[in-house]
Specification:
Blueprint: H1 4-13, H2 18-25, H3 29-38, H4 43-53, H5 58-62
Helix pairs in contact: 2-3
Length: about 70
Amino acid sequence: MIKTDELRGIIAKRNKSQSDVAKAIGVSPKTFYMKMKKGVFGSDEIQIMIDDLGIDNPVEIFFAKE
């Protein structure tokens, strides 16, 4: 389960929009929104977000236990 609230916070801290992140991972903003709503991303998308956003603690965000 992805902690989407924390991911949104990191996106905002990096002065990026969700559209910017969608573009970086190669999906439309609408698709990104749906993925955030479901909390499901592919491993390649997760890696791009970790690198692009400089996420220091990816396990806590992308592989959180409920």
